[in-house]
Fold each of these.
Amino acid sequence: MREDREGFLQPHIDTDTCIKCHKCEKTCPIISPITIPTDFETQAFAAINKDEAVRMRSSSGGMFHALAKWTIEQGGAVFGARFNENWEVVHDYTETLEGIEPFMRSKYVQSRIGDTFKQAKQFLDAGRQVLFVGTPCQIGGLKSYLKKEYDNLLAVDLICHGVPSPKVWRASLSETIKEGKLSDIIFRDKQEGWRGVRLRYTLINSSSSAKDLQYYANGFLDNYFLQKCCYNCKFKTVHRNADITLADAWGIENYAPNMDDNKGTSLLLVHTAIGYTILSAIVQQINLLDINITDALKTNKRATTSVSYTKHRTVFYLLINIFPVSIVINGLLKIEKYKKKILKRLIKQK
Ligand SMILES: Cc1cc2nc3c(=O)[nH]c(=O)nc-3n(C[C@H](O)[C@H](O)[C@H](O)COP(=O)(O)OP(=O)(O)OC[C@H]3O[C@@H](n4cnc5c(N)ncnc54)[C@H](O)[C@@H]3O)c2cc1C
């Protein structure tokens, strides 16, 4: 895998050593998509982890932690995304309860999958329970790599907006945090409530946290630096090849207001009997409500539709060769704001 100009890892074939077995093409979930089983009708739930502290440390309703805890209690291993020592996002695994913590919370950066498919297969072949959480394309890749179904695998994907560039993340960190060492980064800070993407970081030996990285979150939400394929994602379906899909229950205030206190509610889509059985095993730890899937997906468009391509993406990548990332993002956001203002005025005049 090699990082491209935009900062995304892309597969490269060494033509000198390639034996032309085409195994890479047969394993690629885009070139050779695997069929999704249709023997189980997807069911939707709204869910909240009863452990308030866990929920507040999670991005949504804290369902990942509940599934991870169950997996560890079965003697299993939990795979997910965490920060490494340079605050880059990487996939890794843990076999302990305390080890779950770094995997909690969404990191809105493309994670490096590394050797985790291989490691997960080793655990699965040894008969150990495995929870693997990733974006829908990562779970597609895992399933293609494994080539067979395992009863001891709980594959969990996310409703995914799209993954931002690791290069843009690195540049944002280095130009914003010039002094001091980071001790924590939260993409979904809940101090002002669950709704929104509020980025907050803390430095070692500092009692207060800072918000001046927020421009990165705003640029992510305006789609300036997502992976190109995210604008035409092949994994946008209701029924998935994961056992469970985790997401934010956006719009919950409309269809199940009792499950909304603005501290985070998860949307769960259960796609398989394995997913349903494991959800039943953790039901004591969560508040769970059966919901109408059409209601739930009406207010969470990213389940079934990709974000729109923006021409600003091309401009963004040209300009960051000359100007700091923060200046470019804030400039583009300002242009968008004025465009909207002018459009509103024109509509009013009509
Ligand atoms: C890039 C990205 C985009 C998303 N877009 C949407 C969206 O548009 N709509 C929506 O409803 N939900 C979206 N989500 C999902 C949402 O942010 C929560 O991750 C999800 O609801 C789980 O929350 P939780 O409270 O159960 O657990 P949390 O404790 O918040 O668990 C987060 C889980 O996500 C995994 N994870 C974190 N970062 C990454 C990453 N970069 N790549 C792969 N896996 C990761 C962790 O390993 C962990 O398993 C997105 C998540 C990511 C990572």
Amino acid sequence: MKPWTFLCACDMQPGSPRSFRFRRQHRDNWETALRQLRNEDAELLLIGGDLTRDGSIHDFEFDEVRAELETLPYPCYAVPGNMDTGNKHSTIGHPRSHAEVTAEQLDRFARFFGEFPWSFTHRNVRFSGIYAALAGSGLPHEDRLWRFLEEELPAQSPADHHVMIMHYALFIDDVNEKTWDLTDPDHYHDWYFSIDREHRLRMFEAMKATGVKIVLSGHIHCRKLEQVIEGVRFLKCAGIAFPQWADRWPDGDTTLGYHRFEVSESGIAESFVPLEIESDSDEGYGPGGHPDPEERDYSLAWEEPPEEIVGMKSR
Ligand SMILES: [Fe+2]
């Protein structure tokens, strides 16, 4: 078999100067990644979510990134991230958990990037994509997720390899770790970046039952050395827009970039492709995090916001 290549990129979230907030750093880093990706001799690109900074409220951010991805010489397969839709739900309604994902946001993502979860084979590899943060949401999309994992995937024809991509990490340190406590300030981010234990273990069982051998995730923007658990390789991917969580793991590396996978007779070998230039520009405006609607001030925008936003604000 002639070796061939697929790629994985996560968390480009360039944002837009037509938005109520913008950071030049995010935009510059995505443009660097896009230039490098255009020169890759690959057969497909997996995208692990957070394609936009505020796609959850702006169609125009989805339009822009989709048009940019269409300039790549190979197809892209994306799963949503929380910036494209909304956050994981909490079980206790704590104020630290907000902007929780809604059915409407999930359906909007599907309008731009297609229905999910998805699964397909390319050559001798099955690729599957999920939005794991739906677990525990109680949304109809959650039922669809479990049906996909536990009924539809096992019915698919197997391939030599099965690669699954998701936005949230399945776990932080170990698949058996507890559900992190979002009320504990020292561990809020552990909770925010991972899937709760009950759902995590159920997903892991489904992964093993359907021959998943590689699990890729984004969201954290910090690459971690690959972990192999019960024969499944877990890879926490680098970010593109900006680095994050540099001090959580001794083997964490916040260098920005994307991942290249070479498929050959001997298996799937991963290598990291750093951005050729990392922007650390502090130019920009507007709030970080997940601001409430009343905190969105479009008069700050460097470029004219789209008509529908101006109309919405003046109503
Ligand atoms: Fe994220």
